[in-house]
Amino acid sequence: MVREIVIWPDPRLREEARRVEVVDDSVRALIADLFETMYAANGVGLAAPQVAVAKRVITIDTSPKQEGVKPLALVNPVIVKTEGETVYQEGCLSIPGEAEDVTRAAKVWVKALDKDGKEFEVEATDLLAIALQHEIDHLDGKVFVDHVSALKRGLIKRRMQRLKADREQEKAEGKPSQPQRQGTPGL
Length: 187
Ligand code: NI
Fold this sequence. Notes:
The protein is an alpha+beta fold. It has a single domain (about 10-170), classed as Alpha-Beta Complex (Peptide Deformylase), CATH 3.90.45.10. About 30% of the residues lie in helices and about 25% in strands. The protein is built from 3 helices and 7 strands. It has helices spanning about 25-40, 125-140, 150-170, and strands spanning about 45, 55-60, 70-85, 85-90, 95-105, 105-115, 120-125. The strands form 2 sheets. The protein has a 5-stranded antiparallel sheet. The protein is globular, with a radius of gyration of 16 Å. The model has no long low-confidence stretch (mean pLDDT about 95).
């Protein structure tokens, strides 16, 4: 089921998501919905808080932009090691139409549970490393604009508030909302 994506600023994107105690069918259903919602929005990553579920679950599929990677679902992901530094222009499905340079680790090692509750580790570079850090930020109530200047963040916040007001009005008038342009991959 495609779920509605929460648009920033929103208190639900500021909460610390809870660890998943048992990876059961409800978690697997959430993972399926995250993939479906992410692909419907042409995104390459999505975290449960972005669909208003405060659980530590993320999905990532950077294969449209990166060769040799597979779709990943991660439950309770933890960054265990990082290496180097890189700058990448990030977008976010919760901040549609915006993109800014963010500095992050170039390489990360992440431990998580898979959809069957089995522990695994992923070693990631390039967009996958960016996506992992961006989505894990979401689980800690952070968004990519927290990594840019207060001035830029303020401007983006005002544009997002306007976008939300427009969407509310479209909804009230019964008009279908327009899909957002997205130059950078949405995370
Ligand atoms: Ni995001």
